[in-house]
Write a structure and sequence with these properties.
The protein is built from 19 helices and eleven strands. It has about 475 residues and is of the alpha/beta class. The protein has four domains: about 90 residues, DnaA, N-terminal domain (GMP Synthetase, Chain A, domain 3), CATH 3.30.300.180; about 190 residues, P-loop containing nucleotide triphosphate hydrolases (Rossmann fold, 3-Layer(aba) Sandwich); about 70 residues, Helicase, Ruva Protein, domain 3 (Orthogonal Bundle); about 90 residues, DnaA protein, C-terminal DNA-binding domain (Chromosomal Replication Initiator Protein Dnaa, Chain: A).
């Protein structure tokens, strides 16, 4: 047997073992079409159609695959995947499993209880503790798409990662609706800090988890150890801080906050609402949330959604046509989470159905996910809502008037049409909104984006109008 043939024989042996251990239909779906590529020493490389495919079999059959390749190759066997896109595109070689997860160095946690009962975070007899930072390497700055919706948050986060605790952005308070990237930015900061400052202790925790840990510490009479644990953190990231309700947990968190802030440690919070809108929070805690920088993340515009889809499809190992990308970016206009979910579903349908990803398949998949709510949105509806908002008539908006209010209303209408309408060309938008050409519509969209980043009141107008368009209300 030649070296060129050995990898085929080894993989065929693996397939026999796997086939005898799983359901025949599952085997045909997930393993039958995997193709062996090479065997170099103990490193076996196989070809799969997408990163989604790889993630699924690693999640569902991880132990079986690991034991099988060790049985076929040896104890030091390694499996690598060559992601071969569904459409022609250069493949990416990815190692089995996720990339390296950030870790913290061991740290000593003092215990103060006379009984010697260990801290809830320290195993009996352990003098030093390795704190799991709980950071997901997928949420890195490299995998984050920047746009007008999150530019300030990303810029502040990058500044923090270069000098944690030493910038004016302490604490950093990120707020906005679900799926807008708050967790991604917060974790990206922690990941970047760990890469730059390996000795710093970074911890990501949710507001609800902090509250639960506090309650457990109270029940076990270990509240002093609980506080001592959090006082050793250099970068504390608390996600969904709005869930930290309860006088006792807030009082303890207040003490932790003060200690960390006074000692130059970095604090990062995320929330679904602004500090001023948080309910059932102590005033002294709310005032501290406002000490640093509060950043609102908004709904991504069309260009940002398009770039996000390009980036994520590359990570999935899938090559999508511009028509499909444009369709998805136009159809899914709510948040990043729905965009990612739709793309994952689209890849799954194409992979399992052995179909090419085209607009027809995209229409079928998004129809099941998005529903019919956006189907009622039209140029006429958008222009009607804009006119109502600014208290002007449609004739006034479509006129050649150069009054500032009229011009801005028309520009916002063009911006929203491009942002929210699927398969609607710039020429169509321009023709319907005053007989303008596509260049005028492009200029209007660019002007609106610039004003949103520099004029808070103008941005509020755009957000209000967009919410009136996409949120069902009685009209």
């Amino acid at each position: 047997m030649t070296d060129q043939e050995r990898h085929i024989a080894v993989w065929n042996n693996c397939l026999k073992i796997i086939e005898s251990n799983i359901d025949p239909q599952q085997f045909n779906t997930w393993f039958k079409n995997i193709r062996p590529v090479s065997l170099e020493g103990s490193r076996l490389t196989v070809e799969v159609p997408s990163d989604f495919f790889r993630e699924y079999i690693e999640g569902a059959y991880k132990d079986l695959i690991r034991l099988t390749i060790r049985r076929a190759i040896g104890a030091d066997a390694l499996l690598f995947y060559l992601v071969r896109p569904i459409q022609n595109h250069e493949g990416m070689v990815l190692p089995a499993g996720q990339s390296a997860t950030p870790t913290n160095n061991p740290v000593s946690i003092p215990t103060y209880q006379p009984s010697g009962t260990p801290s809830p975070f320290v195993f009996p007899g352990t003098q030093r503790l390795r704190i799991n930072p709980r950071l997901n390497p997928v949420y890195s700055f490299g995998n984050l798409v920047e746009g007008e919706c999150n530019k300030l948050g990303v810029s502040a986060g990058e500044s923090i990662s270069m000098a944690p605790g030493k910038t004016p952005f302490n604490p950093l308070f990120l707020f906005g609706g679900p799926g807008l990237g708050k967790t991604h930015i917060a974790q990206a900061i922690g990941i970047d800090i760990k890469e730059r400052f390996q000795n710093l202790q970074v911890l990501y925790v949710s507001g609800n988890e902090f509250k639960t840990q506090y309650m457990d510490a109270v029940k076990g009479n270990r509240i002093v150890d609980f506080i001592a644990f959090y006082q050793r953190i250099d970068v504390l990231i608390v996600d969904d801080i709005q869930d930290l309700v309860g006088q006792g947990s807030q009082n303890t968190f207040f003490n932790v906050f003060n200690h960390l802030h006074q000692n130059g440690k970095q604090l990062i919070f995320t929330s679904d609402r602004a500090p001023a809108d948080l309910q059932n929070f102590e005033k002294r805690l709310l005032s501290r949330f406002k000490w640093g920088l509060s950043v609102e993340l908004t709904r991504p515009d069309y260009e940002t959604r398009l770039e996000m889809l390009r980036s994520r499809s590359l990570r999935e190992g899938v090559s999508l046509s511009e028509d499909v990308l444009s369709f998805l970016a136009s159809r899914i206009n709510t948040n990043f989470r729905e965009l990612e979910g739709t793309l994952t579903s689209l890849v799954a349908h194409a992979t399992l159905g052995h179909r090419e990803i085209d607009v027809e398949l995209a229409q079928s998949v998004t129809g099941k996910i998005v529903g019919e709510q956006e189907n009622d949105i039209s140029i006429e509806l958008i222009s009607k809502i804009v006119c109502e908002y600014f208290n002007i008539t449609r004739e006034m908006m479509l006129s050649k008037s150069r009054k500032r209010q009229i011009v801005q209303a028309r520009q916002i209408a063009m911006y929203e049409c491009r942002n929210l309408l699927q398969n609607c060309s710039l020429s169509t938008i321009g023709a319907e909104l005053g007989g303008k050409d596509h260049a005028t519509v492009l200029h209007a969209c660019s002007t609106v984006q610039d004003l949103m980043s520099t004029d808070k009141l103008f941005r509020q107008w755009v957000d209000d109008i967009e919410n009136m368009i996409v949120v069902p209300v009685e009209r």
